[in-house]
Amino acid sequence: MSTETLGLRELKKRETRQAISDQATRLFIERGFDRTTIADVAAAARVAKMTVTNYFPRKEDLALDHYEEFVAGPARTVASREPGQSALAALAGAFLAAVERHDPVIGFSGVQFARMIADSPTLVARIRDLHDQREDALAEILAAETGAGPHDITPRAVATQLGGAHRVLFTEVQRRTLDGLSNEEIATAVAGSARRVFELLEPSVGGYAVRQAAG
């Protein structure tokens, strides 16, 4: 099989996945998440029900299609931080950059989508679970980066504080979205909130997991 054939096949997969996601989002907004079935999505996307579940094993994943980045993002940011930079500084910088680009991963979604999430107990619970998974991933990378022993509670404690900051700020973005503010207005307000939140953490974890210079 040629490289070109593989490339076309991968492109087709991405297009199918995006089409399913787009139709699911439309239906969830129109009908509500809990009143829309996988079969409804499959019919709208003109694919088999099994195709939907192959791309999105959980119904919630259809609505929260950035979930992988949501979970892995902070851990990846810490793993790639610059020499001399702490975990807190890396995460603060990454969050403020995400605010500037109105990143949906941190909650920028538009009022209809935000309302769809708020109205679904299933999605609210799923987001809570994703926050927990994100803290687990962050704790794991912090332990690896600092050489913490298996019984050292420090990485978990720091991950909980850093994860808590992200939870508060995600909720803040969603709240302001539901209040009808524009993305620009939300970004201005949340950037200030983020600086304050990360500033509050500086005395306790500002010197934790500082990457040493090479050599």
TrEMBL record:
Coiled-coil-forming residues are none
Protein name from the UniProt record: AcrR family transcriptional regulator
* The entry's DNA-binding region: 37-56
Q: What species does this protein belong to?
A: Streptosporangium brasiliense
Residues covered by the HTH tetR-type domain: 14-74
Family matches, as PROSITE patterns: HTH_TETR_2
Question: Which keywords does this chain's UniProt record carry?
Answer: DNA-binding, Transcription, Transcription regulation
InterPro entries in alphabetical order:
Homeodomain-like_sf (IPR009057), HTH-type_TetR-like_transc_reg (IPR050109), HTH_TetR (IPR001647), MftR_C (IPR041347)
Q: Which domain of life is it from?
A: Bacteria
Stored SUPFAM superfamilies: Homeodomain-like (SSF46689)
